[in-house]
Amino acid sequence: MIGWLDNLRERMAVAASAPFAHAEYPLAHTLDYRGDPGLFGPDSVTWRVVGSPISLFGGIRGLLVQAAHPEVVAGVEDHSRYRQDPLGRLSRTSNYVVATSFGAVPEVEKAVDVVRRRHVTITGTSHRQIPYTADDPELSAWVHNSLTAGFLVCHQTFSGEPLTVDEADAFVSEQTRVGALLDSDPMPTTADDLLQWVREYPDVGTAPGMEDAVAFLRRPPLDPLPRFVYRFIFAAVAATVPPRLRDVLGIRRVPGAILVGKAIAVLLRWVLGSSPTWKLACLRIDAPLPEGRVFKQPMLVDVPETLDR
Q: 133 forms bridges with which residues in the sheet?
């Protein structure tokens, strides 16, 4: 019976991880930077939040809320290849979060440099005749703050181990270090201020391409099993979006969606455990593995036996 369950869990873990394996792993050489804690380190709240499988929920929510900004949508519509390479886009976004959260400083700098060079080319004019450029501090702030809020809200709602008020504030404050690398401004530094900023942001609205972006997030091109589970995750995430933004995005709160999302979160924790990249980062700096965390997935780099534990 135990062997059958282990086999089932492994198959489910592969299915859950596959959509994010369409780009080169960003920390392939992280063990070359022994002792480098990166932007955060083992005592940070960021490692706890992003190292949880519930960060998947947060990433989806962040991308969904970002689509409520017409100039952001225009930039995606005019310059992104997400229709031609949807899983590559998801993987690259995930890898950026992984690199900036757990990478050594050179790996963080490399990830940010890739984004900066890409942002220089993303310019245009939206349907409401407002010029945009991806490196504009306020547009960057919308993207950054929406993603940070997504991780925070979904962790608090679905993880089963919500942060205290002080921990939530610490997470938001830590995340400003990432936003600052892309000159995002403004960046609230407390949880309440962040959520209020996103909730009341004045420049949201519908736009050509928004419906396509939301439809992509609602039904990404996944294999049958993850696609079936994902639709319930999307409904749960959508239910956490503030009503004003739901109205802009054309999504609705499905009754019972959050309860179902919590049940799926329990399943994901059983299937995936904590992020193997969290473990790898601990090994890089010779830090003890966090108590109470189970690392079920293999690390994506070869680790010397003297380091692995």
A: 123
